[in-house]
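fwd from M.: "can u put these together and see what the complex looks like"

so here's what she sent:
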Amino acid sequence: MKTQRKAISLISGGLDSMLATKAILDQGVHVEGINFYTGFCVEGHTHAIRKKDKAKPKRNNALWVAEQLGIKLHIIDIIEEYKDVVINPKHGYGSNLNPCLDCKCFMVKKAHEWIQENDFDFIITGEVVGQRPMSQRRDTMPVIQRESGAEDRLLRPLCAKILPETLPEREGWVDREQLFGFNGRGRKPQIALAGKMGIEDYAQPAGGCCFLTDAAYSNKLADLWTTRGERDYELDDIMLLKVGRHLRPRPHFKLIVGREEGENRFLEGYRKQFTHIIPISHPGPLVLVDGNINEEDLEIAARLTARFSQGKKAASVRVEVHSKKGDTTEMTEMDVTPYRIEDIPTEWYL
Amino acid sequence: MNNKQATTKSTVRKQTHHKLDARNILCPLPVIRTQNLVLTLPEGDTLDVSCTDPGALCDIPAWCRINGHEIVEARITDPDTNEVLISIRVGKN
Ligand code: SF4
């Protein structure tokens, strides 16, 4: 009896990995999905935080895709190991702080380790030659195979026909003739294939799968590295970069200002870790102070807090300052004049 | 004569109830924590997961469905804090 071969498919939640997986499933291969959580993934977070997004249905697209395809999905936390990919990418960054090529090599490497541990035969990705400027080019395809260690156990069903034959094709585990030869940035072949496969609902292709492709987010991360004097981060740092308005009045401190109820509630979870300010005479945001501040800085922070409260036009706003002193917090009240919008230098906004 | 009595062995395994606190973390972390714990549990055990990311109400059941675990209950326990509770009966790993 022919042994049923087993493949692991990198599921991002987008259309391409869904099509690639379906193509291999349709050839009778046992496929399971794998999805890596780096901490920068766009999935759900901001929706979960912001109240105005609450009405929108929330779903994890990778889980949803796996369920549509009827396959298992393994979600792997790679937050710690991924830091080195973001901080020291051998192949550099894309247009923002997205280290796409290193990232792909790393994820395929992790998938390769997984197939060795779990006795699977090969790896599938939804990559298409020419689809992405950095990681999906004809010359980077072999780099990923080589640097991940997966070599020819890595099959890209959507563009396999225009790439050299891989092990699963050579061994007859899959029929190369039934694979595809997609090429270039266009989306039409994928959309047509989805139609043929009866796939009607899928996540719209976006610019990238993570926050690192976002210019505003990357600026905030770059600011964090510059002002701390080292290129490093913790999960909380990168979570907080997704939330609120960030202003840096001085190099040694910045403010994170909740923009609405959902964000304020999320920031509340960080009250014990940060000095924070809350307006009490008027409704307003919770403001976290990241950095050590002196009296003069505190006044700037309190006046900015007042500016973003509903008392922004009032002569005076009373705020409560919870200053973090070691493990304890000291509470004081202050009356301050809100900044006028024209007095806030634009370069303070990150 | 053989005095030995025939014995039928029956293994009675106690099913254990577990709790997981996945509050104040955002999806997909509650799913990952649930997954990593469920993978260590024997079939039939039950697990209550509490979360504050309402996305978990959709994601944890989805993960259970595709991986063969049963959702006993999934509900909002505190609308003010967004707290949700998901009860799972572990299937075959
Ligand atoms: S967009 Fe983000 S997750 Fe996707 S390949 Fe680039 S760095 Fe990796």
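replying to her w this: Chain A touches chain B through 30 residues (CB under 8 Å).
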